[in-house]
Amino acid sequence: MKLLSIITRVGLLGLALVLITTITSDLMWESEAAGSPTTQDLAASLLIDWSFALVIIGALLALAMVGAAYLARDERMENLLYEFGGEEE
Fold first, then answer.
1. pTM higher than 0.70 for the full model?
2. Residues 21, 27: Cα–Cα separation, whole Å
3. In this predicted model, what pLDDT tens digit does every residue of 6-27 receive, in sequence order?
4. CA distance to 2, 7, 19, 21, per residue, from 10 (Å)
């Protein structure tokens, strides 16, 4: 079992080295890709083409945050009494 663990670690290290050398090779970064997008293209796409979807996703995330805050702050008297072991006065 220990031998299998060592072989796995050496294999993962080798894979990481191959990936790092491939990504950092000069051939990949010699010239810019034709028609590569810019950050302004991304902003225009999000705010013009996908504006309705962005608003819907924002509303869903806001509802999830409000729900999580409501669930995390449950301070009803019976829960507080149960948690602290006290009795109602």
1. no
2. 11
3. 999 999 999 999 999 888 887 7
4. 12, 5, 14, 17
